[in-house]
Specification:
By secondary structure, the protein is α/β, with parallel strands linked by helices. It is about 55% helix and about 15% strand. Helix 9 (about 155-165) links the parallel strand 5 (about 145-150) and strand 6.
Length: about 200
């Protein structure tokens, strides 16, 4: 697990460097961390070294943890995440709402982003309870100065509701499926061309 985790983190920095060399817009590349990785004493030196070696600012890398992982060792998680935060790393809680997070945890952890689990998003059109939960999580996060990402967006209706409640970010098949690197790198140009085409169409 540790060796594989190190490989994935290195790949994130390597790709960020390739984007930089290609003069592509910088993005935040998120990597999932397991409890084993958080407890690994080589994690922080690895990340510090990669920031120096690749010349990639820490704020272009994000690490995602789960609520249950934090509960395993709150003090350790707090220490490690604070040190990562000192390097500029974005800290996100993945699958939020499926564990047992408390407001006290959110207050004490250096979290930047909550990712609402797709189980609450998939039935937004039909389930009023899911609507209230997603809206409440978004409002709470904003009160705590956190951003919110909704996972698993697959329909325009879901996207419209999330936009209405001012959800900051979204991911899912409606936004984009997993893409090979070359196609992903072409996304900024494709988006620009689509916007320009829409503008021309509106003028006629």
């Amino acid at each position: 697990m540790i060796e594989l985790g190190h490989h994935v983190i290195r790949e994130a920095f390597t790709y960020a460097k390739r984007r930089q060399d290609l003069n592509l817009p910088p993005i935040i590349i998120h990597v999932n961390l397991s409890s084993v990785q958080v407890a690994d004493p080589t994690l922080l030196p690895l990340v510090k070294g990669l920031i120096q070696d690749y010349g990639i600012p820490g704020h272009y890398i994000g690490f995602e943890i789960t609520e249950s992982m934090v509960l395993e060792d709150m003090e350790l998680a707090k220490h490690v995440l604070n040190r990562l935060k000192d390097l500029g790393i974005c800290i996100a809680i993945d699958d939020f709402g499926t564990g047992f997070s408390s407001l006290n945890q959110l207050k004490n952890l250096p979290v930047d982003l909550l990712k609402i689990d797709k189980s609450f998003v998939m039935d937004l059109e039909r389930d009023p309870d899911d609507k209230m939960i997603v809206e409440a999580i978004t409002a709470m996060a904003h009160k705590l100065n956190l951003q919110v990402t909704a996972e698993g967006i697959e329909t325009e209706q879901q996207l419209d509701f999330l936009a209405k409640i001012h959800c900051d970010l979204g991911q899912g098949y409606l936004v984009a499926k997993a893409l090979p690197e070359a196609l992903f790198n072409a996304l900024p140009q494709a988006i620009t061309e689509t916007i320009e085409a829409q503008k021309k169409s509106a003028l006629h």
